Amino acid sequence: MATQPLINAGRLWNRLMALAEIGATPAGGVNRQALSDGEIAAWRRVIGWGLDAGLTPSTDAAGNLFLTLAGRDRAAPPLLLGSHLDSQPTGGKFDGAAGVMAALEATVSLAEQGDRPARDLIVVAWMNEEGSRFAPGMMGSEAFAGERDMAAIRVARDADGISVGEALDRLHAAFPDLPHRSLGFAVDAYLELHIEQGPLLEAAVRTIGVVTGIQGKKTFQVVVEGAEGHAGTLAQQERRDALAAFARIATALHEEIGSIDPDIKFTIGRLSVQPNAPSVVPSRIIFSIDLRHPDNSVLDAAGVRITALCGEHAPPCSVAVTPLVDAPSNAFDPRLRELIAQAAREQEFPATDILSAAGHDARHLAKVCPSAMVFIPCRDGASHVEHEWAEPDHVAAGASVLAQVLRELAFALTPFAGKTRGN
C-alpha cells in the first residue's frame, strides 16, 4: 500500500465536476460535442488548470489539445496520457472527461514533487472521439496515428452542413497564441483511463480493470434509393418504396448478422427518411450500421454478408453500402498491463483483466507505440446517457493507479518503447 497519496483526490473530483458544468443538461448530463462552443470553453478551463501547474499548452492540425510537463531530455519521445473532452448530445460527466482529468491530476501531482521527469509528459484531449456531431469518431487520434488523412477529415459535415474544417478553423481562431505541434510526433508510450461503459467490473466488485484489448468494430452508411409517389394514387405493385426496402433489409440483417453468436453486437442506430412526408412514398433512406466482435475473422465475414444482404433485399430499389470505419480487434502492451496490475495490487485495489467492448482512442495509439488502458466501474454499466455515474473513490483509485505507472515510466532513463520484456 502506498504510504502517501499519489494524487489529490479532492482536486480531481472538483475539477471533474467543474468540467461537467460546461454543456450541462437539465437531466444532469453533458452535451459538449466536438469542436462546439462547449468544447472551446472546456479547453479554456483545462488549459488554465495546466498553466497553473506549469504545463505548456499546444495543439495540432487535427484539433488535439496537449499540455506538456517538460522533462530533462526534451528530444526524447514523450509519454502521452489522456482521453477526450467531447460528449454525446445526451452524454454523461465521465465518458472521456474522467480520463483527461485523471491524466492531468497524475501529471500535476508529479510536477508538485519538484522532480523533473526524464522525458516530457504530455496530457492529451483527442478531437472528436465520440463521432456524434461529425462522423466517424476518433478523428483526432486517427489523424495523429496516420490512419486518416486531414483532407478527408476536414470535409466531413455535421447535420447543419458545417464542415470539420470550418469548425477546426474556428477552434484555432479562439486560441490564436497556442503553438502548433507537428501531426503525429514520436511517442514512447500511451496510457488512458476510462469508465468501463459496461457492467462487468461492478458485478465482479472490482475497482480496476486491466484492459487486455478492444473488440473490433466496423461501421457502414447505407443509402436505399427508391422513387417518390402519391400515397393515395400509386398502386402497391408499382411502388419503389425505399422504406419498405429498408424494412426488408433490416429484418434480414437482424435475423442473420444479429444472431451469429453471443458475442456479436449489431446495431442500426440512425435512420433518415426522405421526403419524410405522411402522404408521400419514401424515396430515399439513409441508415447507419455499427458492427462489433472480438474475433476479426467473424467480424470480417459479417461485414461481407452485410453488403450482400443489403443487395439481396433492396429490389426494386437500389442500394449503396459505404464502409466508414474498419477497426480490427487489438491487444494492449503486456508490459504496460503488468505495470497497471502491479500498481493495483500494491495499492490494494481489487483488479481483473477485461476486454473493452467499446472503442477508444487507445486503439489507434496502440498502432504507433506501446499502449494500455485502465478501466474503472460505472453504475449499472450505463454510459452515453445523462445518468452515467462513477463513484468518487473509483475515480480516485483509477487515477492513483495511473499515477503510479506514470511515475515508474517518467523517471526511467531507458525509453519504455525500446525495452524488451524482462528488462
Blueprint (SSEs and pairs):
Layout: H1 9-20, H2 37-52, E1 56-59, E2 65-69, E3 79-84, H3 97-112, E4 121-126, H4 139-144, H5 150-155, H6 164-174, E5 189-195, H7 200-204, E6 208-214, E7 216-225, H8 242-256, E8 265-267, E9 271-274, E10 284-293, H9 296-313, E11 318-327, E12 330-331, H10 334-346, E13 351-356, H11 362-365, E14 371-376, H12 392-410
Parallel strand pairs: 3-4, 3-5, 5-14, 6-13
Antiparallel strand pairs: 1-2, 2-4, 6-12, 6-14, 7-10, 7-11, 8-10, 9-10
Keywords: Hydrolase, Metal-binding, Zinc
Pfam families: M20_dimer, Peptidase_M20
Family: Belongs to the peptidase M20 family.
Q: What features would you describe in this structure?
A:
The two termini are 24 Å apart. Helix content is 33%, strand content 20%. The chain has 2 domains: 9-214 and 330-418, 3-Layer(aba) Sandwich (Aminopeptidase); 216-327, Alpha-Beta Plaits. The longest helix is centred in the last third of the chain and has 19 residues, at 392-410. It has helices at 9-20, 37-52, 97-112, 139-144, 150-155, 164-174, 200-204, 242-256, 296-313, 334-346, 362-365, 392-410; strands spanning 56-59, 65-69, 79-84, 121-126, 189-195, 208-214, 216-225, 265-267, 271-274, 284-293, 318-327, 330-331, 351-356, 371-376. The protein contains 12 helices and 14 strands. The chain is an alpha/beta fold and 423 residues long. Strands 1, 2, 3, 4, 5, 6, 12, 13 and 14 form a 9-stranded mixed sheet that branches.
